[in-house]
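Translate structure to sequence.
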């Protein structure tokens, strides 16, 4: 276990040093200091109109002068407030209302690209998303506002918004596509020889690591049907598809789930779901599984949310019947919104896979840490690390020279970056870099791997 800890700590330390530096940079200008109020008579007239509830008249003044105005932050904020106020006026048609909300969102978002620490602006953006029905985005921004220590009255209102989001949630979905170059698609070892009962043999020259560029597609959705004030029926499905040239490494997975979700109180909820999954490799059906999972979520404070999951599945293989068996998994995670511009995540878990053949049965442990920081000038960066330890049962001779069981230790480092101003029909491009290394006491099971993904994802 000490080797496992060393493998986690030493690679991740440099990442956390980077996080400290980035956090210091983010905090420079990330406070909610008052922005300069414009002395422009037109702007002040518009401000007075907004205070008097005459939002459309204010927009007529602000729209022509907003582009390139010297007091950009103040003018854009007033545009957002006026558009948001106009959208809430009685008698506004749906199309007009959506257009005004979009205008408000664009104005607030433009400010936060350069100054992500302006909590008041983020609060109004969260409210605009709420009125538009974009609950996932609204929730994220409300939670960031809570991390900015707002006035207790504001905090109470935000908690009411979050409760309303939780109660009214019906449809949720996600879709994404990624371009994914990989230096070791087949996760192969670089070792060129293998020792078989004292005989050292050379490996086939074509059995090493193979690189490639793949396409990853993923998507899914869920509907929650209200059965009672505190009870929902969840029905959902997810699909993922990975394709590389030659089809040998293609992977397709289709999963579904259904079950009740209980809203226990304002801070807690539990779901019990029946779930099924079908998986294909290289275009051929590989396995199917059926089981159940228990999910729980609890808000410990305005900044900290915890999640837990327990699952059990029986897996059946189409051809490799020796791999038939059960898979049990338990995991926990914490999400800490440290400030309005920095979020940290921690996770840990354990799983047990029992197969027909002893040397393929295994237990797995993992722990992960990650931090995301919104920097000024529109840049958001993230760093993280994960450690995975897998212990197999039974002898694995001759791959393990002393005849003992196989043990793997895998270290994964991740980094990501995206620009908040780039948005393609709701899709934000994100570059993710991954360095992965596995050490094993079994011959030919070590590997090194560098991956990248240019992601385009959207949640709705």
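Result:
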């Amino acid at each position: 276990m000490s080797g496992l800890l060393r493998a986690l700590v030493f690679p991740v330390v440099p990442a956390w040093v980077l996080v400290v530096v980035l956090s210091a940079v983010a905090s420079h200008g990330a406070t909610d200091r008052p922005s300069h109020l414009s002395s422009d008579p037109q702007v002040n007239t518009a401000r007075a109109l907004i205070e008097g509830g005459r939002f459309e008249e204010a927009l007529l003044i602000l729209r022509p002068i907003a582009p390139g105005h010297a007091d950009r932050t103040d003018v854009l904020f007033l545009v957002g407030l006026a558009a948001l106020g106009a959208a809430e006026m009685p008698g506004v048609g749906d199309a007009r209302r959506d257009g005004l909300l979009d205008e408000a969102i664009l104005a607030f978002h433009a400010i936060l690209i350069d100054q992500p620490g302006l909590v008041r602006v983020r609060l109004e953006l969260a409210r605009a998303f709420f009125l538009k029905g974009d609950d996932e985005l609204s929730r994220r921004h409300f939670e960031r506002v809570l991390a900015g220590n707002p006035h207790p009255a504001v905090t109470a209102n935000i908690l009411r918004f979050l409760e309303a989001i939780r109660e009214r949630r019906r449809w949720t979905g996600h879709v994404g596509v990624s371009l994914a170059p990989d230096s070791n698609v087949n996760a192969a070892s670089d070792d060129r020889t293998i020792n078989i009962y004292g005989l050292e043999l050379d490996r086939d020259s074509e059995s090493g690591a193979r690189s490639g560029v793949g396409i990853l597609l993923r998507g899914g959705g869920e509907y929650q049907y209200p059965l009672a004030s505190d009870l929902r029926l969840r029905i959902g499905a997810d699909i993922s598809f990975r394709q590389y040239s030659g089809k040998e490494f293609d992977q397709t997975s289709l999963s579904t789930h259904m079950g009740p979700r209980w809203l226990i109180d304002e801070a807690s909820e539990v779901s019990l779901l029946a779930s099924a999954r079908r998986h294909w490799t290289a275009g051929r059906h590989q396995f199917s599984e059926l089981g159940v999972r228990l999910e729980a979520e609890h808000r410990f404070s305005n900044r900290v949310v915890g999640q837990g999951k327990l699952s059990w599945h029986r897996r059946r293989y189409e051809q490799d019947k020796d791999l038939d068996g059960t898979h049990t998994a338990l995991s926990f995670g914490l999400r800490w919104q440290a400030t309005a511009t920095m979020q940290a995540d921690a996770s840990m878990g354990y799983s047990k896979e029992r197969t027909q053949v002893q040397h393929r049965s295994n237990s797995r442990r993992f722990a992960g840490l990650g931090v995301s920081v919104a920097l000024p000038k529109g840049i958001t960066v993230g760093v993280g690390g994960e450690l995975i330890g897998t212990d197999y049962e039974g002898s694995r001779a001759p791959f393990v020279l002393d005849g003992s069981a196989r043990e793997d230790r895998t270290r994964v480092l991740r980094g990501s970056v995206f620009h908040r101003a780039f948005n393609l029909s709701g899709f934000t491009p994100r570059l993710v870099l991954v360095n992965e290394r596995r050490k094993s006491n079994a011959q030919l099971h070590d590997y090194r791997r560098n991956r990248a993904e240019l992601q385009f994802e959207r949640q709705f």
